[in-house]
Amino acid sequence: MMSELDAAAPIGVFDSGIGGLSVLTQIRRLLPAEALLYVADSAHIPYGNKPADYVVARSLAITRFLAEQGAKAIVVACNTATAVAVAELRRQFALPVIGVEPGLKPGISRSRGGVVGVLATAGTLGSEKFQRLISTHGQQRRVIVQPCHGWVEQVESGALASQETWELVASIIQPLRLQGVDTLVLGCTHYPFLAPLIRELAGPEVEIVDTGPAIARELQRRLDALGLLRSGTGTGGEHFWVSGDPKSSGMQLARLWRPGCPLERLSAGVE
Ligand code: DGL
């Protein structure tokens, strides 16, 4: 089935909300000619505090939808969905499926002081996949895992620099700094949108690790290996779907992507 895929076909990307736009931005930067489809599962956000089987069911429904739209590859632009669902997606779909995971390995190699903080949802940190990552790479340094309750909601609401967001982010970052953290791994695709605030609170000497650029490179490598890279100098288009209220997602899309991009509500059965 994979050989029937066409390089001109679009790439399907999804997240629980608009967080995956941090990954989509990197994909667009690296692969300007590709057509991109994006689903924000905003009616079901946040994934991070939902049972794993709920997130698996949502990931399967959205991947099926993206495959029906002709996607040649799927990017799970969500650490939580990757942690619990990527194996099942790969089992059920004959498409390349690229997932994201907290950049623990790069975080450990960049850490000079030897204390690494991993910021992610409770769902990601509690998953077996993350436990395996920690036992493979976490022995060489002190690793502090930190769920960041409420951060996803602040990003979704567009309050990237409000007083409430500042206090929420400070309540996590300041104690981590007191524990000697010198490297912070952004293990949720919503968090890069809070990076300026995290940077301000953590100080310039702290390394911030975002895996978005590495995911885009991995996607490029996989498509290239399968002969599915779209070449040419043209600019690929984008199309967006949401499962929740298109109005509020539309406002955030306009701010974080660009105004006036095509946005639809997911059709019955997927919403
Ligand atoms: N952006 C997501 C992640 O990377 C999901 C956050 C959520 O819905 O809780 O984990």
How far apart the termini lie comes to 27 Å
Low-confidence stretches: none
What is the top-level CATH class of the largest domain? Answer: Alpha Beta
Q: Characterize the biggest β-sheet.
A: 6 strands, parallel
- Main structural class: alpha/beta
Query: What is the general shape?
Result: globular
Which ligands accompany this protein?
D-glutamic acid
| Rg over CA atoms | 18 Å
- In helices, the fraction of residues equals 40-55%
CATH structural architecture of the largest domain: 3-Layer(aba) Sandwich
- Strand arrangement, major sheet: 4-3-1-2-9-10
Compile the SSE list and pairings.
Layout: E1 11-15, H1 21-30, E2 36-40, H2 52-68, E3 73-76, H3 79-92, E4 97-98, H4 104-110, E5 115-120, H5 122-125, H6 128-137, E6 142-147, H7 151-157, H8 163-178, E7 183-186, H9 195-202, E8 207-209, H10 212-225, E9 238-242, H11 246-256, E10 263-265
Parallel strand pairs: 1-2, 1-3, 2-9, 3-4, 5-6, 5-7, 7-8, 9-10
Helix pairs in contact: 1-10, 2-3, 8-9
The structure holds D-glutamic acid (DGL).
Residues 15-16, 19, 45-48, 78-80, 121, 124, 152, 188-190 line the site of D-glutamic acid.
